[in-house]
Design goal:
The complex is a heterodimer of chains A (about 375) and B (about 475). Chain A is an alpha/beta fold and about 375 residues long. Chain A has 13 helices and 12 strands. In chain A, the strands form 3 sheets. Chain A has an 8-stranded mixed sheet with strand order 6-5-12-10-11-9-7-8, with helices on both faces. In chain A, helix 9 packs across helix 11. Chain B folds into 2 domains: about 170 residues, no CATH class; about 230 residues, no CATH class. The longest helix of chain B has about 35 residues. Chain B starts with 5 loop residues before the first helix and ends in a 10-residue tail after the last helix. The chains are: A alpha/beta (about 375), B mainly alpha (about 475).
Chain lengths: ~375, ~475
């Protein structure tokens, strides 16, 4: 090595490290990351106490990583490299052709008890209680997973749920399995598509004994609003696989219902769709405007009053239900901390349906709230 | 702070290098002491106190040994004090809970567990400072009268937390006077990048494969194929992790003007277990040889003494790696093989083809990694039983795993040989000049991508 060449190599090394440091310092700090859907760490406040217990330096590390220049691009580069190396799993998400499928892990300590909480809800109320467990893509599309790849057996769990005393099952699994060849899940998001939710709606109505009312799929006008075809969902974010074409969100049911949202403890008028969410990354929350403790849909021409214990899958399902029920109450046990049985009784509801995707059902620590007496 | 972190690479390192090279030559040791203390205090600020204490005690003991050199018993007494101090430091922080838990099993003994966090690198720096007083006593190195220079040696950040274990005599001269040419800097930067890539790109990938196999074990679904895949994955993980870290330390040493001894020499190419240990973590092996095995009499005092000495050294080697029974077992496991090789297998091995000897060595070493990796001896026993036929041979998951990691495993295997070094040596000078900066940028870029990704933590509303 000549001296000149050595200087060149040394300079390259220093420029890479120092250059990114300068860039990091000059780059304005961001408050939140759209792609990661979370607030980013800011530079921590200094105190001697925080220095002594190590939380200050830990805070600096988190800040430094969170505000690193080109954060999303680095992640994309890593996923590309992994693909090049022949990997099929990207942070718990399998890349299956042009589709991302989230791997389902077995339930952790104690969460198998969630089934018994639903049974206790049924014991504590006179109303009929339905349990609809929605299998996720890793179950319905198991044959698309890489050969030999693991994913927890949701079908066995659903079969076990069907045996629950006093609870009537909703057969989402056969309904979705029969349509596995269609686009019933998004390619880069873990939710079901509107088409998937339509089959779910048919199965739920069947379980409620109102199968004959189900509308033909062809009867709907499928609307695609601006930006609805640019949906890059949760699996896009989680995996770092950024090279797949975006999904399209369809809206089948025409709005025009009375929708009341309880977001902050007071009722406010709302709508089936919040199209402003289509401008953001989290476009799925266009359905009902996303998570909320309680949402009530009213249709004077419908009949029956239904309480749905929800997760986010219900947001795409609810517009179909609004067509048939006088009232649909969507209650989220993560935010609504009181007795569901009492709520149903006080509001004159006629049936309770616990509608949950299996991955959510086996990881939710709030379902114990269902056991509260009415 | 660890080298393979964004804060180190893009915060600490560029700032430290700038400060270091802006400091006039005769103040550089002091600057090195300051930045090293900062480095050490980053994770556990309180433990900087240990650095001060350790520096002060070994510094004064070095002076005392020098002062009473003519009165040998007194000098030995001070060497002994320093050794005892270092061993107590190590014993208290690293082994207290283990000893307390095991001694409390005896009737009438009840010692409390303290649960103190382990000071970073304590196993390394206590061994380094111990070597100082011993080297001074043996006249292998001159006494150090400048406490800042000595402090710089004790706290020297490149090898402070994960070795190589730098004996005082190795750097004694450079501590006083050293030069850094741009060639040293460039070579150091290349070496550092190689180490970084080994750690971040290869070791972590191997680690993920090992985790996957281990989780099959806990799910009761381990197969023979999965078991061996896991052992190899772990063996590769620890090799690339540890040797990568040593490469980074050695590279940083060159950049700062120090020449540390090599720590690994392609150990997985060894043709005997004894040779493996001469090529694996060489600074530890030679430390034990020089400061424990030889003082005990080595192998020159008859068969029985040799056996005893080997057992002591390997017990200590195992125990040094961790305060848990599996590490002791692991050390004794190697004692067994080394004794076997020395007294029984010697002639057999001499007539065996090289390839067969390599297979034998790798089998012994990788089964050893099984003992090393699983602290719970029940888990470990079950895992190894499966490897030797105590489970189904194959499952579809093994096919998936091997398929997904095929390229990585190939890279790991080739990376354990001298292939890359040989090829590099065969390239014409011109090609090397073009490739070196390209590879350096590639290594740095990909390592950064993997490190940023490691901190990437999407909150996905998975639940709702």
């Amino acid at each position: 090595m000549t001296t000149r060449y050595s200087r060149f190599l040394a300079a390259l090394f220093c420029l890479f490290l120092g250059g990114l440091l300068v860039w990091h310092v000059l780059l304005p700090d961001r408050d939140r990351s759209e792609v990661e859907n979370r607030t980013l760490n800011q530079f921590p406040a200094f105190s001697w106490e925080r220095l002594r217990d190590g939380s200050f330096t830990e805070g600096v590390e988190s800040y430094f990583a969170d505000q690193f220049p080109l954060r999303d691009q680095w992640t994309g580069l890593k996923a590309r490299t992994e693909q090049f190396l022949g990997k099929r799993e990207f942070k718990g998400v399998y890349l299956c052709g042009d589709t991302l499928i989230s791997k389902t892990e077995p339930p952790r300590d104690g969460l198998e008890k969630n089934l018994s909480y639903v049974a206790r809800l049924a014991e504590g109320t006179e109303l009929p209680v339905y349990l609809g467990l929605i299998p996720s893509a890793s179950e319905i599309w198991r044959d698309r997973l890489p050969e030999g790849a693991e994913s927890w057996d949701q079908a066995a769990f659903i079969a076990q749920a069907a045996e629950l005393e006093g609870v009537r099952p909703v057969d989402f699994l056969p309904a979705l399995s029969a349509r596995a060849g269609e686009d019933i899940f998004y390619r880069a998001d873990h939710h079901w598509t509107t088409l998937g939710a339509y089959y779910g709606y048919a199965a739920l109505m069947e379980a409620l004994g109102r199968g004959e009312e189900v509308l033909e799929a062809g009867a709907f006008q499928r609307q695609v609003y601006p930006h609805a075809d640019e949906f890059q969902g949760t699996l896009y974010s989680q995996s770092g696989v950024h090279w797949l074409p975006p999904d399209t969100i369809e809206f089948w049911v025409e709005d025009g219902f009375e929708v009341t949202s309880w977001r902050e403890g007071t009722p406010e008028a709302s709508a089936l769709y919040d199209l402003s969410k289509l401008q953001t990354k989290d476009k799925y929350s266009a359905f009902l405007g996303g998570n909320q403790p309680l949402c009530i849909l009213r249709n004077p021409e419908g009949k029956g009053k239904l309480l749905v214990i929800r997760d986010s899958y219900s947001d795409a399902l609810a517009p179909f239900l609004a067509l048939h029920f006088e009232e649909v109450h969507l209650l989220d046990p993560r935010y609504y901390r009181y007795s569901a049985a009492k709520y149903a009784r006080d509001n004159g509801l006629e049936a309770i349906a616990v509608v949950y995707s299996v991955p959510n059902f086996i990881t939710d620590r709030n379902l114990v709230l269902l056991t509260q007496k009415g | 702070m660890v080298f393979s972190s964004l804060t180190f690479l893009f915060g600490y390192l560029p700032l430290t290098l700038a400060l270091y090279f802006l400091t006039p030559l005769r103040r550089r040791n002091f600057m090195l002491l300051v930045v090293s203390l900062f480095f050490y205090g980053w994770g556990e600020p309180v433990y900087v106190g240990i650095m001060f204490l350790s520096t002060f005690i070994d510094y004064t003991h070095g002076l005392l040994v020098e002062k009473y050199r003519e009165r040998d018993r007194l000098a030995r007494w001070f060497v002994g004090q320093s050794v005892v101090f270092n061993l107590l430091l190590l014993g208290f922080f690293k082994y207290w809970d283990f000893l307390a838990a095991n001694l409390s099993l005896l009737p009438g003994v009840n010692l409390p567990k303290l649960g103190l966090p382990l000071p970073l690198g304590i196993s390394f720096f206590t061994f380094q400072t111990m070597s100082y007083t011993i080297d001074v006593y043996r006249r292998d190195a001159p006494v150090q009268r400048n406490i800042f220079d000595f402090g710089a040696y004790v706290t020297l950040f490149p090898q402070l937390i994960a070795g190589p274990i730098v004996k005082y005599k190795t750097v004694a001269a450079e501590l006083v006077e050293r030069t850094v040419t741009s060639r040293d800097f460039a070579a150091g930067a290349c070496r550092f990048t190689v180490g970084l890539a080994k750690k971040v790109l290869l070791a972590n990938a191997a680690g993920a494969l090992w985790e996957s196999c281990l989780s099959s074990q806990s799910a009761g679904a381990l197969t023979v194929a999965g078991g061996w895949t896991g052992l190899f994955a772990f063996g590769f993980q620890i090799y690339f992790d540890f040797s990568g870290y040593s490469d980074m330390a050695i590279g940083l040493g060159w950049i700062l003007g120090f020449r540390f001894d090599e720590n690994f020499d392609h150990p997985y190419l060894s043709t005997s277990v004894g040779e493996f240990w001469r090529r694996w973590h060489m600074s530890l092996t030679s430390w034990f040889r020089e400061y424990l095995y030889f003082p005990l009499g080595g192998s020159r005092a008859g068969k029985a003494r040799t056996l005893r000495n080997l057992l002591i050294v390997w017990f200590c080697t195992g125990f040094w790696h961790g305060a848990s029974w599996n590490f002791i077992l692991w050390g004794l496991y190697f004692a067994l093989w080394i004794i076997l090789e020395r007294f029984v297998l010697k002639d057999v091995l001499a007539g065996t083809p090289v390839l067969a000897k390599r297979v034998y060595t790798l089998a012994v070493v990788f089964v050893g990694w099984g003992i090393f990796a699983m602290e719970d001896l029940g888990v470990c026993g079950h895992y190894l039983a499966v490897c030797f036929g105590g489970g189904p041979a194959w499952s579809p998951l093994d096919g998936y795993r091997l398929g997904s990691w095929a390229v990585v495993l190939l890279l790991l295997a080739l990376g354990s040989t001298t292939l890359a070094v040989d090829l590099w040596g065969k390239l014409p000078e011109r090609a090397r000049r073009v490739l070196a900066p390209v590879l350096m940028l590639l290594g740095l870029t990909l390592s950064t991508a993997y490190l940023v990704d490691g901190s990437y933590n999407p909150f996905l509303y998975f639940r709702f």
